[in-house]
Write a structure and sequence with these properties.
Elements (H helix, E strand, L loop, with lengths): L1 H11 L4 H18 L1 H21 L3 E2 L4 E2 H31 L2 H6 L5 H30 L8 H25 L8 H15 L11 H7 L3 H13 L15 H22 L9
Antiparallel strand pairs: 1-2
Organism: Amycolatopsis mediterranei (strain S699)
Main location: membrane
Subcellular location: Cell membrane; Membrane
Length: 277
């Protein structure tokens, strides 16, 4: 009898929120890879852009030993983080809010935090996969040299983590203010614009001062700068603002955007569409 009661109590114990979050993350990842078009777009588009840019524009940058092709690789790494986190979150969450998925999920016993854990999981998997592909292409075809010391990889880790956290939270917050019908246009326009002024297509030091100042307000410029500091030699610092990698400012800006994104999510995120009761 005692064993039966103990078993009954064990059955009634609530499932820990983190386990539900992991289960939700597994589901989100499976759904991502089932959408073949989305997978192709996520992994193929940055590679195609990299190949086009690196094939058209090439040549050594001063006496740094850096080829323009390697700059494009680091730039596309930053764009990859932005696209798999901010851009994807806006489109996915705005769509799920519009079709009622969020409203239905809110009515289930699932902890709300599990939904966000699931989104973070799919962002981590897709962004890491994309980074591996870009680094592989850059190393095999465009002369990118992978770091051989732990310090550079540690820099890659904190730039990547801060960038993913900041852009994902900003994407979740931005999804609450864009209508699902026009979410694509309201995401692609600013993202493409930022790519042109953040040192992705054009070396940052060659941009007009006013565009450099505008780019410095947004995370992509700092993501690209952080990636350049990992994969380009120190001699390239002379072409950076202040002739330095500026790791302190990169960390401060990305962390600040993470805090801003969290505050916006907590205060503005909506589970129902504007027209829902």
């Amino acid at each position: 009898m005692t064993e039966t009661k103990a078993a009954d109590r064990a059955v009634r114990l609530p499932v820990p929120a983190w386990r539900i979050g992991l289960a939700r993350g597994s589901l989100e990842i499976k759904q991502f890879f089932r959408e073949k078009g989305q997978v192709i777009f996520t992994f193929a588009l940055p590679v195609i852009m990299l190949v086009l840019l690196a094939s058209i524009f090439r040549g050594r940058i001063g006496d740094t030993g850096v080829d323009a092709q390697q700059i494009y690789v680091t730039g596309m790494l930053g764009v990859g983080i932005l696209s798999t986190s901010f851009q994807s979150m806006v489109l996915q969450v705005a769509g799920e809010r519009a079709n009622g998925t969020l409203k239905r999920l809110r009515g289930t016993p699932m902890p709300r935090s599990a939904y966000f854990v699931g989104k973070i999981a799919v962002v981590l998997v897709s962004s890491l996969g994309q980074a591996v592909v870009l680094l592989g292409v850059g190393t095999l075809f465009f002369g990118l040299h992978l770091p051989s010391d732990a310090a550079h990889w540690l820099t890659f880790l904190w730039v990547y983590v801060l960038g993913i956290v900041a852009c994902t939270l900003l994407g979740l917050a931005y999804s609450s203010v864009v209508p699902a019908a026009s979410a694509g246009a309201m995401v692609f326009l600013p993202v493409i614009t930022l790519q042109f002024i953040s040192g992705v297509f054009i070396p940052f030091n060659q941009l007009p001062d006013v565009l450099q100042k505008i780019a410095a307000v947004f995370p992509l410029k700092w993501l690209c700068q952080g990636m350049r500091s990992v994969f380009l030699p120190d001699a390239f610092q002379q072409y950076e603002p202040g002739m330095s990698w500026g790791h302190g400012r990169v960390a401060l800006v990305l962390a600040g955007y993470g805090v801003l994104g969290l505050v916006l999510c907590l205060t503005t995120f909506r589970w129902k569409g504007r027209d829902d009761g």
